[in-house]
Amino acid sequence: MSARQTLHIRADIQAALDAGQPVVVLESTLITHGLPHPLNIETALGMEAAVREGGALPATIAVLNGDITIGLTREQIDMLAGLPVGAVRKCSRRDLPIVTALRQHGATTVAGTMIIAALTGIEVFATGGIGGVHRGNPHDVSADLLEFGRTPVAVVASGAKSILDLPLTLEVLETQGVPVLGYGTDALPAFYAERTDLPIDQRVDSPQAAAAIIHAGKQLGAAHGTLVVAPVPADAALDGAVAEAAIARATDEALAEGVAGKDITPYVLRRVSELTAGESMRANIALLLNNARIAGQIAVALSRI
Ligand code: PSU
Ligand code: MN
Predict the structure, then answer these.
(1) 279 classed as catalytic
(2) CA of 65 to the centre of ligand 2 (A)
(3) pTM score
(4) Ligand number with the minimum distance to the CA of 112
(5) Diameter of the chain measured on Cα atoms
(6) 3-state class of 50 per DSSP?
(7) Does ligand 1 lie within 6 Å of residue 134's CB atom?
């Protein structure tokens, strides 16, 4: 049995892929571990609408009772979003065989979603932030970064949160051979805030410009992915110092409470939202919708090359 035969691809998505039409994948960890109910449903549906606005078909990915499912239905999104966080395994690369063999529910991270996208033949992915190298713990390197080195999917994100060591995160991406494209920006965005002082590899100012570089990678037979970073929309952005202070405090609290491993990111997300009275969540949702629309446009441009 080939890998593809174990994938459950929604019929309209399979038809779009067969016809060479643009499709964008969306992850599910942000639904189960990233945002509270019912904002998680609203945002998941909002991102799907934004991908369509960009001109592409959205395919939200998760594992349902062990079935790798590409293109959740509205009912499936509602179901997943309503489950208690303990009922769904957060699935990075190493978790996928476990969750499928044990017939469990799994929410895919950036790495998990990239793997499934590549198996399905989908080239563009939209999310909020990628995992990175943790501050103060340079051995806690998100599997997301290594996935970028081995899986040819273009991911539109707003960088990584500054709970992470951003300079080290960029170093790992460089080692992994991953082009970092600034979408309308010369600097790495700071997730909740518009920018850092860190450089990106190349600025691109249109979906076509991004697609040309992604396509050129394909022609070189590149095994690696591409990271396209887009800043949070200005009207929803947090002040850099405010975001930084909340993140530093949330990270300290996580350490003090002994939160570890894959629980750190969800913990810090929730705590930063509390500390900023929901402002961080507003920024998070705005950037997710913006990234989904850009990804839709890039997928369209890529399908026209
Ligand atoms: N960053 C966010 N929101 C998220 C995540 C990251 O702002 O929901 C999720 C993504 O699914 C990402 C994962 O792939 O956390 C990274 O987790 P870890 O650091 O455990 O690899
Ligand atoms: Mn980690």
Answers:
(1) no
(2) 25
(3) 0.96
(4) 1
(5) 53
(6) helix
(7) no
**Segment 129-183, tens digit of pLDDT:** 999 998 878 888 999 999 999 999 999 999 998 778 999 999 999 999 999 999 9
Rounded distance between C-alpha atoms, residue 192 and residue 201, angstroms: 21
For the residues of 196-243, what is the DSSP string, one character each?
-S-B-SEEE-SHHHHHHHHHHHHHTT--S-EEEE-PPPGGGPPPHHHH
Give 257-290 pLDDT, tens digit per residue: 999 888 888 898 899 999 999 999 999 999 999 9
* Rounded (5°) CA angle 104-155-76: 35
User: Residue 106: CB within 6 Å of ligand 1?
Assistant: no
Q: Catalytic residue at 218? A: no
- Contacts of residue 33, defined as CB under 8 A and 6 or more positions apart, other chains included, come to 85, 88, 90, 107, 265, 266, 269
What one-letter code names the amino acid at 298?
A: I
Measure the CA–CA gap between 147 and 114, rounded to whole angstroms: 7
